[in-house]
Design brief:
Elements lengths: L1 H9 L3 H23 L4 H19 L10 H19 L1 H7 L9 H21 L2 H16 L14 H9 L8 H37 L5 H17 L2 H19 L3 H13 L11 H9 L3 H30 L10 H8 L3 H12 L4 H16 L9 H35 L1 H13 L3 H18 L2 H9 L2 H7 L4 H13 L9 H10 L3 H11 L1 H12 L9 H23 L8 H14 L4 H19 L14
Length: 630
Amino acid sequence: MSNDWNTFWTARPLHKKICLVAATLLCLFHIYTALFGVFDALMQRSVHLGLGLILVFLLFNKGGQAKPTLWSWILVLLSVTGIGYLLANYDYVVNERFTFVTPLFWYEKVLGATMIFVVLNAAKRVVSAGLLYCVIAFLIYPFIGPYLPSVLHTTPHTINDLLDFFYLSLGGIFGLPLGVSATDIALFIIFGSILMRTGGSQLISDVATSLTGRMTGGPAKVAIIGSSFFGSITGSTSANVATVGSITIPMMKKAGYPAEFAASVEAAASCGGQMTPPVMGACAFVMSAFSGIPYATILRYALFPAILYYFSLFATVHIEAKKLKLKGVDSATTIGQTLKTYGHMIVPVAVLLALLISGYSPRFAGGYGILSAIAISQLRKKTRLSLTGLLSAFEGGAKNILIVMASTAAAGLIVGSVDITGFGQRISSAFGAIVGGSLFIGLMLGLVISFLLGLGMPTTPAYILQASTVIPALVSLGLAPFAAHLYAFYYSCLALITPPDASAAYTAASIAEADGWRVGWLSTRMALVAFIIPVMFAYNYRLLLVGPWFELLVTVVAALVGIWSLAVACEGYFNRALSIFERLLAGAAAILLVAPSFWLLLAGAVLFAFLLLLQTRPGGVELSGEPEAP
């Protein structure tokens, strides 16, 4: 134990020791507040942000330097000072002063400007320059808005108003987005880190390999199943690609899949983790806060679209494997052996889901999920957490929190600018006028806006911006609030695999040693169902499992057949190669089978049956173009 501790602590440089202490305090703070109740909003968010900013500036240095620069230490000092003032003068800030009424002291102006600068710097380091530029544009808007025409025109605001609102109230940096991060999201990230540290990743990988490894195209199916389960727990696309992809991409290449195809499968499967309950890339928590829809209800709405997405990937790789005549691979272990070693780690996931389904808050469920994961891990030597192991899990969890924390703090500045200028209400009115009251045109415009925002920033801030602008406009056109929120969310996710952004695709391509641009477009084609389904559920809420059970049953069966038909159309293969007519037939059947009409569903079923008849009749055309042997 002493040798482990010496390696783990004594040998660390000073900044790494500070990071470990800050990370441990951050995790313990969230676990404590989950079990015993959160502090007042500003205090909860201030502690969350303050500890997170220390980690950001000590861990993420310019040029990837191992040691923090003098500038990084200065930013740490500025962060501690800005947060420290709020905590030291908490009663005055919360109870005695009034936003826009109480004059600012000169040092409050300096601290307000400093905190905005610090948050922008953190967003650039941890997230992207795109988010930084977007926030800067919204910070400038209140000053130039009075000089802009029409819908962009706004009443004048002084710099004191903005500093007051952004720093000393719950309307800017410490607004609702950061509040969701500070109360709910952080706990699920810590839970995922502990679960992965105690054998969760090995459990997922081994079970996926045992279930599907020997099937046709088994390695690709292992990637899909592994990424879906891993992503549903962590909600991180980049972590999904790096963790699961490092195993599955070489496995797929060894089995005979082209490098671009292997990377595309992993990128598309990892992207789906953001759409899969219970974590959904942290956006489910934010969605619940902005929409007022209970978290458990959002998970129910999101469940079937996630199933359709992964079923489409499963169908695609199965058909591709049939085309290439690829075999499966043998698993190094059986399900029985895997469950004997790691099976008890399913219990914490079951505890988490049971508490959520029972109606407990995500915060409560996350807290007890963490405690159960730590306790259950002690039952087997392979999963048992030592003190250093637990601290490492806390350190990893805290580091994973940083991207959400920085994103939501920066997004709070965007939302604050939209609120103080009234931009959201005006853009919603303009949106309705542009589309002329047409829901379909509104959906298409919303698709473009959601997708473009997703190119410039992570999913969560992209969604948050739409929650104040596009989503209210879609609701005014007649779309149900839950459908409008999910609609905007899905298209914000897809930029992760779609060029020119395609960050997940490029990461997978680097592992596969493939061309990132080609991987991006191929993974986009694989994820085609994610572009289609949101439009369909906007007209057919049964795809969100809303409606009578018999109609839901018909919708579920028809949609699954339709997704298979779509994969057939995209791959150009069923039992054998498809002619152009058969591909068009498959594409038409796919669209009709997810349409919001019984008669259209029936027409789609007839087309699919006709395609099945054509593909199973004697004779036909093989991939080589030669007649099939009689």
